[in-house]
Amino acid sequence: MQDDLFGGAPPSPSAPPRPPEDTPARPREKSPTRRTGVHPATWDVDLHALANRLPPTLRLGTSSWSYPGWQGLVWEGTHSEQLLARKGLPVLAQHPLMRTVSIDRSFYRPLTASDYARYAAQVPADFRFVVKAPSLVTDALVRSEDGRGREPNPAFLDAQLAAQEFVAPALEGLGQRTGALVFQLSPLPWNLLDRLPEVLERLRTLLQAQPALRPAAPDAVLAVEVRDPEWLAPAHLPHFADVLRSSGATYCLGLHARLPPLAEQLPLLRLLWPGPLVCRWNLNPVHGPQGYEAAEKGYAPYDRIHDPDPDNLALLARTVAGICGRDQNAFVTISNHAEGCAPLTVQRLAEQVVLYDQNSSSA
C-alpha cells in the first residue's frame, strides 16, 4: 500500500489537464458603478465543480496573499500590495480551491496571539493556516540585513522560546483554524552539519517540549522543513524519522532546488506513515538553490504560468490523492516562485488530483 502511495508511476489520465502555460488571467469587466474595497473575482461554475470533487481532507492554498497580479484570479479590480496585505485574506478564503494559506511573515519576527486572532477572524471555520516558525529559533546563525550569517545564534532550537514565541500564541490566536506549524530550519553551517545527530536530538527536545495541539486544534500538526540534503541522507534518515515519530510531528515536503527531488523525499513519509501530509512548494528548480531573486524578476506580476513543472505536479498530485484517500489530512501551500502564479498552480494541482482519483476508481 505504501508503494502505491509514495512514488510509483501514476496512471495515464483519461484526458490531459487543461494547459494554462503563459495564459494570463482575463480580468473581470469593471462594473459601471465604482466599488471600494477588495472584492472577489468571478469564478466560473467549472472551478466550483472542481473544488467539490476534491477530497475533504485536502487543503490547498498559497504562500501569502498580497499580490496585485492575481487580479481576475482571486479578486476583481486593481489594488496595491499594501491594501491586499490588509484586506486580501478574506477574499482569498472565498476562492473555491483555497482552504489554507501560509503565514510567512512570522518567520521574520514572532507574531502575537492577537495577530493570529485577527487572521482567524477573517476566514471560515473550516479554513486552516500553515504558519512558519520565527527564524529566532530555526536559524543557527544570527544574520545581517543582507542575509549573511554573522555568528552562532544562542536561541537556535531553544524549546522554551519556540513554545513562548510561536506555538502557544499561534494556538491561542488561531484556535481550531491552526493547521501545520512549520519549523523551517535554515541551511546549517558546516560545523553543525558535521554533527547532525546532535542537532537531531536537540530538535527532538524542542518538539517534545511544545504544548499539546489537539485540545485547541484537532487538525493541527507540528512539521519540520529543512534546507540541507544531508538531513535526508541514508546515514541520518532513520534517526530523523525517529525524532519526528517520537514527537508526534511530521516532515514537511520542501519543493526547493536546495533539496533532493520530491521522489527522493518520499521515503521519509513512508517511515512516518500513517500520518498527515504537509508540503510547501517553494521554488522552481530551473532557478537553482539561490534563485528567489531570479524568480521574482522573471515571474512578476505573478499572473501566469511561466515555467510549468509537470513532473512535480503529477507526483505531488498522486501522493496527495493517496494520502487523502486514506482519510489523512493534507496541507499544501504553493508559492508564486513554483511556476509563476500560485493560484494557477493550485488549480493545476487540483485538476491532477481529480484526474488521478478518476483513473484510480475506474481501474
UniProtKB/TrEMBL annotation:
Residues 19-32 have a biased composition (Basic and acidic residues). Gene3D superfamilies: Protein of unknown function UPF0759. Residues 1-40 are annotated as: Disordered. InterPro entries: DUF72, UPF0759_sf. Signal peptide: none annotated. PANTHER family: DUF72 DOMAIN-CONTAINING PROTEIN (PTHR30348:SF4), UNCHARACTERIZED PROTEIN YECE (PTHR30348). This is DUF72 domain-containing protein. The lineage of its organism: Bacteria, Pseudomonadati, Pseudomonadota, Betaproteobacteria, Burkholderiales.
